[in-house]
Amino acid sequence: MLYTPIGVPCDICDVDEPYGAIHRMNLDGTGIELVARGIRNTVGFDWHPETGELWFTDNGNDAMGDEIPPDELNRVSNIGDHFGFPYCLGGFYNETRYGQYDCSQFVAPAQLLEAHTAALGMRFYTGDMFPEAYQEYVFIAEHGSRSRSEKVGYRVMMVHIVDDFAVSYDVFADGWLQGQQEWGRPVDIFVMPDGAMLVSDDFAGAIYRISYQAP
After folding, report:
1. Which of 5, 50, 57, 141 has the least CB density, counted as fewest CB within 10 Å?
2. d(CA 171, CA 95)
3. How confident is the model over 116-169, as pLDDT tens digits?
4. Do residues 52 and 35 make contact, with C-beta atoms less than 8 angstroms apart?
5. What is the spatial distance between Cα 147 and Cα 145, in angstroms, rounded to a whole number?
6. Are 105 and 92 in contact (CB under 8 A)?
């Protein structure tokens, strides 16, 4: 099936479908189905290689300060899951708008990501070039912040997945941000047939190949 995300036409607002959701359909356009909702803006998503569950990144809104709300890595366990936007942001109650909601009625993020890093493309590592332990990781391209007093992101992060749960969030590749000056902005990640990883950069106009050779 073809999966397609539709973000919201605002920084933060309460909107109806089809906005703020991921849908899927047959390749001839029939059988449109809602997969996930309550999503501000997802660019990257991938399927867990063992469970088949859909995981996706979600960008938080601006204008609430440097540290909130965090970006998110989410997991769809049930078709039609609601992930909280705009009522609960990063798993906590949005106190400023849209009434009182108990965040427990929404799906909590699988992993909180640093606020305003603009998490875009993501991939589970399914190759056999890297050490075997890397097959338990999802890799996320963080494009980098716009509305923040000090820039963050501009890197590739890795989230360790154990028994279908996220247990850590660490840097895999960085250096595109030197001080407060960026020279590159990672966008998407692709695992090649030989197991190497490609990372695209729309600021430098480049694609990087990351490979590994055992000592």
Report:
1. 50
2. 31
3. 999 999 999 999 999 999 999 999 999 999 888 999 999 999 999 998 899 999
4. no
5. 6
6. no
